[in-house]
Amino acid sequence: MTSLHQRKADLSKEEVKRYSRHVIMPEVGMEGQRRLKASSVLLIGTGGLGSPLALYLAAAGIGRIGLVDYDLVDFTNLQRQVIHGVSTVGLSKLESAEARMLDLNPDIEVVKYNEPLMSENALRIFGEDWDVVIDGTDNFPTRYLVNDACVKLGIPNVYGSIFRFEGQLSVFHADEGPCYRCMFPEPPPPGLVPSCAEGGVLGILPGTIGTMQATEAIKLLLGIGDPMIGRMMLYDALEMSFQTIRVRKDPACPVCGIAAEEIQLIDYEQFCGMPAHDHSEFSSVDEADELDIKSVTVHDVRAALENGDDVLVIDVRDPHEWDISVIDGTLKIPKPDIQLAKNGIQGGRRLWEETILKDIPKDKTLYLHCRSGVRSADSIAFLSEIGYDLEKMYNVEGGILAWADEIDPAMPKY
Amino acid sequence: MAKIRIPTPLRAYTDGESNIEVAGDTVAEALGDLVAQHPDLRAHLFQDDQLRNFVNIFIGDEDIRFLQGLETEINSDDSLRIIPSIAGGNPPISIGGKQIADEEAPR
Predict the structure, then answer these.
(1) What is the ipTM of this complex?
(2) Does B99 have pLDDT greater than 50?
(3) Active site (catalytic) residues of A
(4) Domains of chain A, start order
């Protein structure tokens, strides 16, 4: 195995001291450490896998480390995302991670990409001179995107993935072996994955897999040892078993089997049938168009509110619209918040009870309204995608404008 | 009898069992015995009678796609593995608790 680049950077006296446990090993030595300092590694995600990756690669003296993430630190992250802390809950994960990395090693450079990785920005970000990309994402659409962009640009992709007590590790470097698609040509359909009762992850597991990814990255950069190209390691924490299987290059692979310039980045959310990130516009039911959504009139809404029927009326307009007019007795949740929560649940990043949707019971009849009836229909479609019963949700025809016309003439219209 | 190792995401359909002994002289027969023992698994592994193309079956460290596929012969001491496609800390989930494939989501 030869190293990925021959660049070397000078080390200060202080740095030689900092890295002395590396430098005294012949496999690294001064030359290897200077090479690490001249190296660049891009981390996709600063979550469970990204935390140990960022910490150890910073400590090891990788000169330039890129971070791609758009999320904020959440309290529930701290069970496994050890680069963050109570003091950074609510802050950007990038800021939180950068501060910790530079505290650990001020001699490195941290490059931040505060955006969700998408087909539109992947080639720009990946093209900014990275020796290695490390996939620490948590969803299928982004994994396929990372793979395809790496194959196109010829960058090795250090892959790690986790689920409950199991982990997988490999290096997909299409120039020398198979890619992710050779092993997993397409993702499982969203309907064929376990329910939330089977979700979750042992908090230590991303530490185990993430540190092994970091190890593979260092090996690639130094050109030492046997990298996991063409192999996948399967780890089971409960059995404490490690098994390595062979991953072969598929000559008919739709990505690494064709010329790099012919590789097109596609709509990976469409490909996987699920949103890649919480801010995604993706909807597997194409909004409300394909659904048979029931409706009620504003008179039904008034009757339900006056009779104290067991109905929850939800106003999905934006907060500034609530200042203009409002129907008393409604629950107010803007449509974008419903979509955000839906995406988080569908993408496996949030449990239902961790989202704003916990305020919307699943067994109750729901009347949803907006200004005129379009956003509320979309909201019903979103809720139906994540298990709410379409038979129990009703769109309020004409929205609050109809209410102003037919029920409360004093209400301002806008 | 040969053994098949069941990955975590599929253990919900095998009563939590992780290693299951199966009868059969080929991969197809072994998988047939597996889904006979645990019928809930069938929809996860097969579509009609074809192995779903995101399901990876290995004998030892080798992918059956590079052997003779479902017709690959097996010995009684072989270990088969189903290698799951996993994406991250949580799987995509359905809060409706839908079990399986009546409802493969539209693509």
Answers:
(1) 0.82
(2) no
(3) 196, 370
(4) 13-272 (3.40.50.720), 294-406 (3.40.250.10)
